[in-house]
Amino acid sequence: MAFVVADAADSAGTPVDREIVAAAAQLYRDLHAHPELSGAEEHTAVRFAAALRGLGCQVTTGVGGHGVVGVLCNGAGPTVLIRAELDALPVAEETGLPYASTATGVTADGRTVPVMHACGHDLHLAAAVGAAAHLAQERDSWRGTLLTVGQPAEETLQGAAALLDDGLYDRFGRPDLLLAQHAAPLPAGMVAHGVGAMTAGCVTLDVTVPGRGGHAATPHLCVDPVLLAATIVLRLQALVARQASQDDPVALTVGTLRAGHHAAVIADEATLGVTIRSRHERTLDQVLDSVIRTIRAACAAANSPREPTVRVVSRTPAYVGDPAMTSRVRAAHLGVFGTERVSWWPPSLAAEDFPLLAVGGIPSSYWMLGTVGPRQWRTVPGATAAEKLGNLPTNHSPAFAPHVELALPTGVAALVAAARTLLALD
Protein backbone atom coordinates (compact mmCIF):
# COMPACT_ATOMS: atom_id res chain seq x y z
CA MET A 1 0.00 0.00 0.00
CA ALA A 2 1.40 3.37 -1.02
CA PHE A 3 -0.16 6.26 0.87
CA VAL A 4 0.51 9.97 0.57
CA VAL A 5 -0.33 12.58 3.20
CA ALA A 6 -2.36 15.43 1.76
CA ASP A 7 -2.44 18.95 3.14
CA ALA A 8 -5.62 20.91 3.69
CA ALA A 9 -4.68 23.16 0.80
CA ASP A 10 -4.87 20.16 -1.53
CA SER A 11 -8.66 20.17 -1.30
CA ALA A 12 -8.64 23.48 -3.16
CA GLY A 13 -7.67 21.53 -6.26
CA THR A 14 -10.69 19.24 -5.94
CA PRO A 15 -13.09 20.19 -8.77
CA VAL A 16 -16.13 20.92 -6.59
CA ASP A 17 -17.65 24.33 -5.85
CA ARG A 18 -16.68 25.63 -2.39
CA GLU A 19 -20.27 26.58 -1.58
CA ILE A 20 -21.39 23.02 -2.31
CA VAL A 21 -18.70 21.65 0.00
CA ALA A 22 -19.61 24.15 2.72
CA ALA A 23 -23.29 23.16 2.56
CA ALA A 24 -22.34 19.48 2.63
CA ALA A 25 -20.08 20.09 5.64
CA GLN A 26 -22.93 21.77 7.51
CA LEU A 27 -25.14 18.76 6.77
CA TYR A 28 -22.35 16.46 7.94
CA ARG A 29 -22.02 18.20 11.31
CA ASP A 30 -25.79 18.11 11.81
CA LEU A 31 -25.98 14.41 10.98
CA HIS A 32 -22.99 13.60 13.16
CA ALA A 33 -24.54 15.34 16.16
CA HIS A 34 -27.89 13.55 15.72
CA PRO A 35 -27.22 9.88 14.88
CA GLU A 36 -29.87 7.16 14.94
CA LEU A 37 -29.71 3.39 15.23
CA SER A 38 -30.40 0.95 12.40
CA GLY A 39 -34.09 0.85 11.58
CA ALA A 40 -34.78 4.04 13.56
CA GLU A 41 -33.30 6.59 11.12
CA GLU A 42 -36.45 8.73 10.96
CA HIS A 43 -34.93 12.18 11.51
CA THR A 44 -31.76 11.36 9.55
CA ALA A 45 -33.99 10.44 6.61
CA VAL A 46 -35.90 13.72 6.98
CA ARG A 47 -32.66 15.76 6.87
CA PHE A 48 -31.28 13.80 3.92
CA ALA A 49 -34.56 14.08 1.99
CA ALA A 50 -34.78 17.83 2.61
CA ALA A 51 -31.25 18.33 1.30
CA LEU A 52 -32.08 16.44 -1.90
CA ARG A 53 -35.35 18.31 -2.40
CA GLY A 54 -33.41 21.56 -2.15
CA LEU A 55 -31.43 20.47 -5.21
CA GLY A 56 -34.54 19.88 -7.30
CA CYS A 57 -34.67 16.10 -6.88
CA GLN A 58 -37.97 14.25 -6.82
CA VAL A 59 -37.79 12.61 -3.40
CA THR A 60 -39.58 9.56 -2.06
CA THR A 61 -39.28 8.57 1.60
CA GLY A 62 -40.22 5.46 3.53
CA VAL A 63 -38.64 3.07 1.04
CA GLY A 64 -37.72 -0.21 2.72
CA GLY A 65 -38.22 1.36 6.14
CA HIS A 66 -36.74 4.85 6.42
CA GLY A 67 -35.01 4.69 3.03
CA VAL A 68 -34.84 7.80 0.83
CA VAL A 69 -34.63 7.94 -2.96
CA GLY A 70 -33.88 11.21 -4.75
CA VAL A 71 -34.34 11.23 -8.53
CA LEU A 72 -32.61 13.84 -10.69
CA CYS A 73 -33.66 13.46 -14.32
CA ASN A 74 -31.63 15.21 -16.99
CA GLY A 75 -32.78 13.89 -20.34
CA ALA A 76 -32.43 10.52 -21.98
CA GLY A 77 -29.42 8.49 -20.96
CA PRO A 78 -28.09 5.95 -18.48
CA THR A 79 -29.06 5.74 -14.82
CA VAL A 80 -26.45 5.93 -12.06
CA LEU A 81 -27.29 5.09 -8.44
CA ILE A 82 -25.25 6.53 -5.56
CA ARG A 83 -25.80 4.67 -2.28
CA ALA A 84 -25.14 6.17 1.16
CA GLU A 85 -26.16 4.78 4.55
CA LEU A 86 -28.45 6.41 7.11
CA ASP A 87 -27.73 4.46 10.29
CA ALA A 88 -25.28 4.83 13.17
CA LEU A 89 -23.92 2.55 15.90
CA PRO A 90 -24.50 1.92 19.64
CA VAL A 91 -21.19 3.54 20.61
CA ALA A 92 -20.47 6.30 23.16
CA GLU A 93 -18.52 9.00 21.33
CA GLU A 94 -15.12 10.05 22.73
CA THR A 95 -13.83 12.34 19.97
CA GLY A 96 -14.18 15.62 21.86
CA LEU A 97 -15.51 17.30 18.72
CA PRO A 98 -17.69 20.39 19.22
CA TYR A 99 -20.46 18.59 17.34
CA ALA A 100 -19.94 15.23 19.08
CA SER A 101 -23.01 13.08 19.60
CA THR A 102 -24.71 12.89 22.97
CA ALA A 103 -27.66 11.01 21.49
CA THR A 104 -29.17 7.82 22.81
CA GLY A 105 -31.36 5.24 21.16
CA VAL A 106 -33.43 2.21 22.06
CA THR A 107 -32.34 -1.19 20.80
CA ALA A 108 -34.67 -3.89 19.52
CA ASP A 109 -34.65 -5.54 22.96
CA GLY A 110 -35.57 -2.30 24.74
CA ARG A 111 -32.18 -1.15 26.07
CA THR A 112 -31.23 2.53 25.97
CA VAL A 113 -27.74 2.94 24.51
CA PRO A 114 -25.48 5.78 23.34
CA VAL A 115 -25.42 6.35 19.58
CA MET A 116 -22.57 7.60 17.38
CA HIS A 117 -21.71 7.85 13.70
CA ALA A 118 -18.60 5.74 14.26
CA CYS A 119 -18.40 4.31 10.75
CA GLY A 120 -18.54 7.40 8.54
CA HIS A 121 -22.11 7.07 7.31
CA ASP A 122 -22.66 10.77 8.01
CA LEU A 123 -19.68 11.49 5.75
CA HIS A 124 -21.12 9.24 3.04
CA LEU A 125 -24.50 11.00 3.19
CA ALA A 126 -22.98 14.47 3.03
CA ALA A 127 -20.74 13.48 0.11
CA ALA A 128 -23.70 11.99 -1.76
CA VAL A 129 -25.67 15.22 -1.35
CA GLY A 130 -22.62 17.20 -2.45
CA ALA A 131 -22.24 15.06 -5.57
CA ALA A 132 -25.93 15.45 -6.40
CA ALA A 133 -25.61 19.22 -5.88
CA HIS A 134 -22.64 19.40 -8.24
CA LEU A 135 -24.42 17.42 -10.96
CA ALA A 136 -27.59 19.49 -10.50
CA GLN A 137 -25.49 22.63 -10.99
CA GLU A 138 -23.69 21.25 -14.07
CA ARG A 139 -26.65 19.85 -16.00
CA ASP A 140 -25.27 20.98 -19.36
CA SER A 141 -22.35 18.58 -19.05
CA TRP A 142 -24.24 15.30 -18.67
CA ARG A 143 -27.36 13.39 -19.63
CA GLY A 144 -29.29 10.66 -17.88
CA THR A 145 -30.75 10.04 -14.43
CA LEU A 146 -29.10 10.19 -11.03
CA LEU A 147 -30.60 8.16 -8.19
CA THR A 148 -29.30 9.23 -4.77
CA VAL A 149 -30.31 6.63 -2.22
CA GLY A 150 -30.18 6.86 1.57
CA GLN A 151 -30.19 3.25 2.73
CA PRO A 152 -31.43 2.26 6.19
CA ALA A 153 -30.02 -0.51 8.37
CA GLU A 154 -26.64 -1.11 6.74
CA GLU A 155 -25.00 -1.93 10.06
CA THR A 156 -27.39 -4.83 10.54
CA LEU A 157 -26.95 -5.85 6.88
CA GLN A 158 -30.71 -5.70 6.39
CA GLY A 159 -31.30 -2.41 4.61
CA ALA A 160 -30.30 -3.24 1.03
CA ALA A 161 -32.59 -6.27 1.01
CA ALA A 162 -35.39 -4.13 2.45
CA LEU A 163 -35.00 -1.60 -0.37
CA LEU A 164 -35.18 -4.34 -2.99
CA ASP A 165 -38.15 -6.00 -1.28
CA ASP A 166 -39.94 -2.64 -1.42
CA GLY A 167 -39.50 -2.49 -5.19
CA LEU A 168 -36.53 -0.12 -5.46
CA TYR A 169 -35.83 -0.90 -9.11
CA ASP A 170 -39.46 -1.48 -10.09
CA ARG A 171 -40.43 1.94 -8.74
CA PHE A 172 -37.42 4.04 -9.71
CA GLY A 173 -35.80 2.18 -12.59
CA ARG A 174 -33.01 -0.32 -12.82
CA PRO A 175 -29.65 1.49 -12.72
CA ASP A 176 -26.86 0.96 -15.22
CA LEU A 177 -24.22 1.61 -12.58
CA LEU A 178 -24.08 1.36 -8.77
CA LEU A 179 -21.65 3.53 -6.82
CA ALA A 180 -20.66 3.60 -3.15
CA GLN A 181 -17.67 4.57 -1.08
CA HIS A 182 -16.67 3.87 2.50
CA ALA A 183 -14.69 5.81 5.07
CA ALA A 184 -11.41 4.12 5.94
CA PRO A 185 -8.34 4.91 8.09
CA LEU A 186 -6.05 5.96 5.27
CA PRO A 187 -4.88 9.55 4.74
CA ALA A 188 -7.68 12.01 4.04
CA GLY A 189 -7.59 13.24 0.47
CA MET A 190 -7.00 9.75 -0.89
CA VAL A 191 -9.18 7.03 -2.38
CA ALA A 192 -8.30 3.34 -2.71
CA HIS A 193 -9.70 0.65 -4.98
CA GLY A 194 -9.59 -3.12 -4.57
CA VAL A 195 -9.20 -6.19 -6.72
CA GLY A 196 -11.24 -9.29 -5.99
CA ALA A 197 -13.20 -9.52 -2.75
CA MET A 198 -12.93 -6.07 -1.15
CA THR A 199 -15.34 -7.05 1.62
CA ALA A 200 -16.36 -10.39 3.08
CA GLY A 201 -19.60 -12.25 3.06
CA CYS A 202 -21.25 -12.28 6.47
CA VAL A 203 -23.92 -14.23 8.32
CA THR A 204 -25.38 -12.71 11.49
CA LEU A 205 -26.97 -15.08 13.99
CA ASP A 206 -29.25 -14.62 16.99
CA VAL A 207 -28.75 -17.63 19.28
CA THR A 208 -30.90 -18.53 22.28
CA VAL A 209 -29.42 -21.06 24.71
CA PRO A 210 -32.07 -22.57 27.02
CA GLY A 211 -31.32 -23.32 30.65
CA ARG A 212 -33.23 -24.16 33.80
CA GLY A 213 -33.34 -21.25 36.18
CA GLY A 214 -33.17 -21.26 39.94
CA HIS A 215 -31.30 -20.12 43.03
CA ALA A 216 -27.58 -19.38 42.82
CA ALA A 217 -27.09 -21.54 45.94
CA THR A 218 -28.46 -24.65 44.19
CA PRO A 219 -26.73 -24.81 40.79
CA HIS A 220 -26.97 -28.63 40.89
CA LEU A 221 -30.73 -28.27 40.48
CA CYS A 222 -30.39 -25.95 37.50
CA VAL A 223 -28.96 -25.84 33.99
CA ASP A 224 -26.87 -22.68 34.01
CA PRO A 225 -27.21 -20.95 30.61
CA VAL A 226 -24.37 -18.53 31.40
CA LEU A 227 -21.88 -21.35 31.87
CA LEU A 228 -23.31 -23.08 28.81
CA ALA A 229 -23.04 -19.91 26.71
CA ALA A 230 -19.45 -19.39 27.85
CA THR A 231 -18.64 -22.96 26.83
CA ILE A 232 -20.19 -22.35 23.42
CA VAL A 233 -18.15 -19.17 22.91
CA LEU A 234 -14.89 -21.04 23.53
CA ARG A 235 -15.90 -23.99 21.37
CA LEU A 236 -16.79 -21.71 18.47
CA GLN A 237 -13.38 -20.07 18.57
CA ALA A 238 -11.71 -23.48 18.57
CA LEU A 239 -13.91 -24.49 15.66
CA VAL A 240 -12.68 -21.60 13.52
CA ALA A 241 -9.08 -22.18 14.54
CA ARG A 242 -9.29 -25.70 13.13
CA GLN A 243 -11.53 -25.09 10.08
CA ALA A 244 -10.11 -21.88 8.59
CA SER A 245 -7.04 -21.93 6.37
CA GLN A 246 -4.52 -19.19 5.71
CA ASP A 247 -5.74 -19.01 2.12
CA ASP A 248 -9.39 -18.75 3.14
CA PRO A 249 -9.60 -16.82 6.43
CA VAL A 250 -12.70 -16.84 8.61
CA ALA A 251 -13.62 -14.45 11.41
CA LEU A 252 -16.21 -15.58 13.96
CA THR A 253 -17.15 -13.05 16.61
CA VAL A 254 -19.56 -13.33 19.51
CA GLY A 255 -20.42 -9.67 19.86
CA THR A 256 -23.11 -9.97 22.51
CA LEU A 257 -23.84 -12.35 25.39
CA ARG A 258 -26.78 -11.55 27.65
CA ALA A 259 -28.43 -13.43 30.48
CA GLY A 260 -30.12 -12.84 33.80
CA HIS A 261 -31.12 -9.87 35.89
CA HIS A 262 -29.69 -10.65 39.36
CA ALA A 263 -26.43 -12.08 40.71
CA ALA A 264 -28.26 -14.54 42.96
CA VAL A 265 -30.55 -15.91 40.26
CA ILE A 266 -29.55 -18.47 37.64
CA ALA A 267 -31.30 -17.38 34.46
CA ASP A 268 -33.63 -19.42 32.28
CA GLU A 269 -31.76 -18.63 29.07
CA ALA A 270 -28.87 -16.77 27.50
CA THR A 271 -28.66 -15.10 24.11
CA LEU A 272 -25.65 -14.62 21.88
CA GLY A 273 -25.14 -12.40 18.84
CA VAL A 274 -22.72 -14.04 16.41
CA THR A 275 -21.19 -13.02 13.09
CA ILE A 276 -19.35 -15.33 10.69
CA ARG A 277 -17.26 -13.77 7.92
CA SER A 278 -15.56 -15.25 4.88
CA ARG A 279 -14.83 -14.23 1.30
CA HIS A 280 -16.40 -17.42 -0.06
CA GLU A 281 -20.03 -18.52 0.11
CA ARG A 282 -19.08 -22.19 0.36
CA THR A 283 -16.92 -21.50 3.39
CA LEU A 284 -19.71 -19.49 5.02
CA ASP A 285 -22.09 -22.42 4.53
CA GLN A 286 -19.60 -24.91 5.97
CA VAL A 287 -18.81 -22.83 9.04
CA LEU A 288 -22.48 -22.01 9.62
CA ASP A 289 -23.34 -25.72 9.62
CA SER A 290 -20.49 -26.40 12.06
CA VAL A 291 -21.61 -23.57 14.35
CA ILE A 292 -25.15 -24.93 14.52
CA ARG A 293 -23.88 -28.46 15.25
CA THR A 294 -21.55 -27.17 17.96
CA ILE A 295 -24.31 -25.19 19.69
CA ARG A 296 -26.73 -28.12 19.61
CA ALA A 297 -24.10 -30.55 20.89
CA ALA A 298 -23.15 -28.27 23.78
CA CYS A 299 -26.78 -27.90 24.82
CA ALA A 300 -27.34 -31.64 24.61
CA ALA A 301 -24.24 -32.30 26.73
CA ALA A 302 -25.49 -29.83 29.36
CA ASN A 303 -28.94 -31.50 29.41
CA SER A 304 -30.73 -28.33 28.33
CA PRO A 305 -34.49 -28.63 28.73
CA ARG A 306 -35.10 -27.49 25.13
CA GLU A 307 -33.34 -27.30 21.80
CA PRO A 308 -31.40 -24.07 21.22
CA THR A 309 -32.66 -21.69 18.55
CA VAL A 310 -30.32 -20.32 15.91
CA ARG A 311 -31.89 -17.60 13.77
CA VAL A 312 -30.18 -16.10 10.72
CA VAL A 313 -30.77 -12.37 11.14
CA SER A 314 -29.06 -11.31 7.92
CA ARG A 315 -26.70 -12.52 5.23
CA THR A 316 -24.71 -10.69 2.58
CA PRO A 317 -22.17 -11.91 0.03
CA ALA A 318 -18.63 -10.66 -0.44
CA TYR A 319 -18.27 -7.58 -2.60
CA VAL A 320 -16.36 -8.37 -5.79
CA GLY A 321 -16.39 -5.34 -8.06
CA ASP A 322 -16.92 -5.47 -11.78
CA PRO A 323 -13.31 -5.46 -13.13
CA ALA A 324 -14.07 -3.34 -16.18
CA MET A 325 -16.05 -0.76 -14.20
CA THR A 326 -13.50 -0.69 -11.39
CA SER A 327 -10.78 0.03 -13.94
CA ARG A 328 -12.92 2.74 -15.54
CA VAL A 329 -13.74 4.48 -12.27
CA ARG A 330 -10.16 4.19 -11.04
CA ALA A 331 -8.99 5.86 -14.24
CA ALA A 332 -11.48 8.67 -13.63
CA HIS A 333 -10.15 9.11 -10.09
CA LEU A 334 -6.57 9.16 -11.35
CA GLY A 335 -7.59 11.92 -13.73
CA VAL A 336 -9.03 14.00 -10.89
CA PHE A 337 -6.65 13.27 -8.01
CA GLY A 338 -3.42 12.13 -9.64
CA THR A 339 -1.41 8.99 -8.99
CA GLU A 340 -0.29 9.97 -5.49
CA ARG A 341 -3.84 10.18 -4.13
CA VAL A 342 -5.22 6.96 -5.65
CA SER A 343 -4.07 3.71 -4.07
CA TRP A 344 -5.01 0.04 -3.76
CA TRP A 345 -6.92 -1.47 -0.83
CA PRO A 346 -6.30 -5.04 0.35
CA PRO A 347 -9.11 -7.59 0.84
CA SER A 348 -10.90 -7.26 4.16
CA LEU A 349 -13.20 -9.30 6.39
CA ALA A 350 -15.38 -6.26 6.99
CA ALA A 351 -18.88 -6.82 5.59
CA GLU A 352 -21.28 -4.65 3.62
CA ASP A 353 -24.73 -5.25 2.08
CA PHE A 354 -24.04 -3.07 -0.98
CA PRO A 355 -23.39 -6.25 -3.06
CA LEU A 356 -27.07 -7.20 -2.72
CA LEU A 357 -28.02 -4.16 -4.80
CA ALA A 358 -26.08 -5.57 -7.77
CA VAL A 359 -28.91 -8.02 -8.45
CA GLY A 360 -28.76 -9.53 -11.92
CA GLY A 361 -25.18 -8.42 -12.47
CA ILE A 362 -25.61 -4.64 -12.42
CA PRO A 363 -22.10 -3.14 -12.83
CA SER A 364 -20.81 -1.45 -9.70
CA SER A 365 -17.83 0.34 -8.23
CA TYR A 366 -16.91 0.64 -4.56
CA TRP A 367 -13.87 2.32 -3.09
CA MET A 368 -12.38 3.42 0.20
CA LEU A 369 -12.28 7.08 1.20
CA GLY A 370 -9.45 8.33 3.39
CA THR A 371 -10.36 10.04 6.67
CA VAL A 372 -7.11 10.52 8.63
CA GLY A 373 -5.88 14.12 8.88
CA PRO A 374 -2.26 15.05 8.08
CA ARG A 375 -1.23 15.73 11.68
CA GLN A 376 -2.80 12.53 12.98
CA TRP A 377 -1.17 10.45 10.24
CA ARG A 378 2.27 11.95 10.82
CA THR A 379 2.16 11.55 14.60
CA VAL A 380 0.59 8.09 14.93
CA PRO A 381 3.23 5.48 15.85
CA GLY A 382 4.50 3.28 13.04
CA ALA A 383 7.37 3.13 10.58
CA THR A 384 5.20 1.79 7.75
CA ALA A 385 1.69 2.47 6.50
CA ALA A 386 0.55 -0.93 7.81
CA GLU A 387 1.92 -0.16 11.29
CA LYS A 388 0.22 3.24 11.31
CA LEU A 389 -3.09 1.69 10.27
CA GLY A 390 -2.81 -0.68 13.22
CA ASN A 391 -2.48 2.22 15.67
CA LEU A 392 -5.23 4.48 14.33
CA PRO A 393 -8.82 4.56 15.65
CA THR A 394 -10.69 2.22 13.35
CA ASN A 395 -14.26 2.32 12.15
CA HIS A 396 -16.61 1.49 15.06
CA SER A 397 -14.16 3.09 17.52
CA PRO A 398 -15.49 5.78 19.92
CA ALA A 399 -12.53 7.93 18.79
CA PHE A 400 -13.29 7.66 15.04
CA ALA A 401 -13.23 11.25 13.71
CA PRO A 402 -12.81 11.88 9.97
CA HIS A 403 -10.83 14.93 8.85
CA VAL A 404 -13.82 16.56 7.20
CA GLU A 405 -11.95 19.43 5.52
CA LEU A 406 -10.07 16.93 3.33
CA ALA A 407 -12.26 13.84 3.32
CA LEU A 408 -15.55 15.49 2.36
CA PRO A 409 -14.47 17.36 -0.80
CA THR A 410 -12.56 14.26 -1.86
CA GLY A 411 -15.66 12.12 -1.34
CA VAL A 412 -17.82 14.52 -3.35
CA ALA A 413 -15.32 14.71 -6.21
CA ALA A 414 -14.84 10.93 -6.22
CA LEU A 415 -18.58 10.33 -6.62
CA VAL A 416 -18.93 12.98 -9.32
CA ALA A 417 -16.01 11.58 -11.31
CA ALA A 418 -17.37 8.04 -11.02
CA ALA A 419 -20.89 9.08 -12.06
CA ARG A 420 -19.54 10.94 -15.08
CA THR A 421 -18.00 7.74 -16.43
CA LEU A 422 -21.53 6.96 -17.68
CA LEU A 423 -23.38 10.25 -17.54
CA ALA A 424 -20.92 12.63 -19.24
CA LEU A 425 -21.63 13.83 -22.75
CA ASP A 426 -19.19 12.39 -25.29
UniProtKB/TrEMBL annotation:
Cofactor note text: The Mn(2+) ion enhances activity.
Residues that, per the record, bind Mn(2+): C119, H121, E155, H182, H396
Segment forming the signal sequence: none
Pfam families: M20_dimer (PF07687), Peptidase_M20 (PF01546)
Gene Ontology terms, MF aspect: hydrolase activity; metal ion binding
Cofactor requirements of the protein: Mn(2+)
Domain Peptidase M20 dimerisation: 201-299
Keywords from the named record: Hydrolase, Manganese, Metal-binding
Lineage: superkingdom: Bacteria
The name this protein goes by in its record: Amidohydrolase
